[in-house]
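Chapter review: from sequence to fold.
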Amino acid sequence: MKKIFFISSAAIIILAATAFLLIYQSHAEVMKKTNDCYDNGGLPEMEKSGIVLEHVECQMEKQ
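The token string follows.
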């Protein structure tokens, strides 16, 4: 009984850590692309589907 509890607890912890890392990686990618666009004087336009970045565009102001 203790062995099953230990295995299921370990599996839950591994799944939670994996989910956290995927979400953090997605957030870091969005922040990097956003900051790069702002640093170049543009306005970022992004489209996400879940944690996947589908579309990235940096709209530059016309002068």
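Two observations follow directly from the output. The chain is about 60% helix and 25% strand. The helical segments are 2-39.
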